[in-house]
Write a structure and sequence with these properties.
DNA-binding, homotetramer, mainly alpha, Tetracycline Repressor, domain 2
DNA sequence: TATGAATGAGTGTTCATTCAT
DNA sequence: GATGAATGAACACTCATTCAT
């Protein structure tokens, strides 16, 4: 009899957003219909336009919400990891975890988010940059600390990291295969890091001094002895 | 009212194909319209259906034509390159060349790979596999010859190569920046190859011999001299 | 540009239904176009799809409406008629009355029954069965009461009744000739009933009693009178 | 090497006709396509228009061919049957035989042939009339010979015969049930003929005279006796 | 603020028919 | 006479968006 407490705008908005997320995860943008979103949100189409300008803005809001959650989840945990390899393993595993939580998210992000011509400089691009910053920071820090080669191009490295993840997910998870984020992350980072790592002091040490020592030694030897040495080294 | 002057079937087909290529390069599949293709081809929609069963088949024909040309171009040149690094540099540079010829191609290819669920096992997937075979062969050969680590996962490596290329292209060319395929390819391959390279055991060979030479040399020297050497090497 | 003034949903629905009835009565299903229905309903095609899922459902709704009205009209009047002949005359006359109200109805009904292979078991088939039940009940009751031959096949009888009506209507009304349902029904039922009627044994009852009365009477008369009677009856 | 003997026009025409028959039997008129007919006939669409004005004319030719064959088959056999019942049984059985030979024919004839508004007076109507003449002749002859009631309306009887057959076939054969033309024909004709038959002399006789006799008798009786009779008849 | 009926331009696809070769 | 490429109007159906209530 007494009216239910009036729903605040934010509640309604959240309902619509939740419904939109469901639908956008289930269908490609073009095929996702406002009508279906309204149905799931328990309101009518017109109502949605009271909260969002149009379909695209609603989609952007859904993606924003996702990125915000993702970044909020990563931030504090990332902050306490120091080593370059550890950080990369964490970030890669966290990225792969997305596909475990809902395999559709990466599809949506890759396919739809970057589809629009207006992507660069847009809202979604900013969000993606914020997310990618974790990797960029890891790489710059790694270079600064000497854990990564000084001549590594961080942009390029980032592209190969995310691009590789995208393709691997598409070919693996996209085909219905399971994956263990932690184990896969370890393997990926190992593969990449061996190439991106700065030549460690100890790795080069064994032979860096040798040439010099040999030269010195050999210089001292008699011509005869030297001749014999040359013979033996064949 | 009256039909255009008759043309040879193959000519008309080529015109439609060319028009379709233009349109499919300009818009995502869903947004590309048969009507627009017909307009650009200078015929009516009905005519197109005399040459292609439906929109999807037309799209497939466009992509097939592209892949066929690409593969035909690569095949003979790839066949005469032997070294793993050389092969990779060639393949990466050739891939980047696509974006120079028409920056939209890779967008189309990637978009559609992500598109229809029927992708895997389909026509386009086959073509993509044929193309990717150049990389896969390079990787297997590299492993067989000991130029790449025996425990390298070729699928994963391929995913990171193509995925990385895709992202890099999107972020670079996609933003209207120019690129020099050869130079970029060199940098990319260097970055990846240092990590994919064969394990230290084989790679160390050049300096493993040095140890022996040093030992021999040092064994011959007087203890006094040896003491002095040790001092100097600090 | 601007929407027509809002109407109550049921009103619009009725308008569309009425327009659809007109069109479906005028053209075979395949040739009836949604566009034309929309025009007659005074709305755009899209509006129709707000009320009906698709063309078929709209058609079914039109036919359903018709059958519902027909059955509702027949039911109470049929309920109070007992004799088999009376019932049949009523049902046949009512059926013919349809053609007087709108000569196209029977064409539509027959056409569609012959149409989709999915007819049997479908919605329309159910409706047709409900309607045909009046005849089937009449026939079974008639057999049960001994007014119809025990070996009459009710299905076959029903087929000949409705089939005959269909052909007769097609050849008579279909050619623009008028008909008086009541008179024609009487003639039809007479034609059929003489054949479907119960066997002579039961039918003879009315005059079987006469024999007895005659025998009694004659038995009282003088032989002379009786002789003369016999003579005269030749 | 030597050219095959040129096909005469009639051969080509027959091929097209045969192909058209196949297609029109397989699909409703609207869905039967000239292209498919051309394919089955081993020629191209254009060729067909060299032999037939348009699709409708081709359809009519197919139906004509069918009716011609049917009539030619019936004519000589019908000519030697005299009795009304025998003739009807023959005609009904022959009609049902059509469904055994190819169950689609009656569907085609009923659905398509009479669909066109231009049916009456048209070619197909003429053919149907010729076919129906066998029944009409049987009925008139039957009346003339006294085998059928003088007041039987032959048109109406014919409609019920063919209409009944059509419905019965639709409900029986159309549902995939088998039928034995001869047996079914016997049952149908029995059902109809008992009703259409003229009242045989002996059937009416028993009571036709009785009334008269009773009247006479009763007229002679004394009022007292008559009173008693009335009492008893209750 | 919420509603939801109406809009109308849009989609891919079909096919009988024509006519230049 | 045969060809078959081209036509072009027609089709059912969709859906983001608007706006009077």
């Amino acid at each position: 009899m007494t009216a239910l407490p009036k729903r605040r705008k934010s509640v309604r908005r959240a309902e619509i957003l939740a419904a939109a997320r469901e639908v956008f995860l289930a269908r490609p943008y073009e095929q996702a219909s406002i009508t279906e979103i309204a149905e799931r949100a328990g309101c009518v189409v017109g109502t949605i336009y009271g909260y969002f300008e149009n379909k695209r803005e609603l989609f952007d809001a859904v993606v924003t919400e996702f990125y915000d959650g993702l970044i909020a989840d990563i931030e504090p945990r990332f902050a306490v990891i120091e080593g370059t390899a550890d950080r990369l393993r964490f970030l890669v595993a966290r990225h792969l975890q997305i596909t475990v939580d809902d395999p559709s998210w990466l599809k949506v992000l890759d396919r739809e988010a970057r589809g629009a011509e207006s992507y660069f400089g847009g809202k979604l691009h900013q969000l993606n940059r914020r997310y990618a910053q974790f990797v960029m920071r890891t790489l710059s820090d790694g270079i600064a600390r000497g854990e990564l080669r000084a001549d590594l191009d961080p942009q390029m490295a980032r592209d190969f990291l995310f691009g590789g993840l995208e393709h691997w997910v598409r070919n693996t998870v996209g085909r219905g295969r399971r994956n263990d984020p932690t184990a896969v992350a370890r393997e990926m980072v190992r593969m990449l890091l061996d190439g991106w790592a700065a030549a460690p002091a100890e790795r080069a040490a064994p032979w860096q001094g040798l040439e010099a020592r040999i030269a010195k030694l050999e210089g001292r030897l008699k011509p005869a002895a030297r001749a014999r040495e040359t013979e033996a080294s064949k």
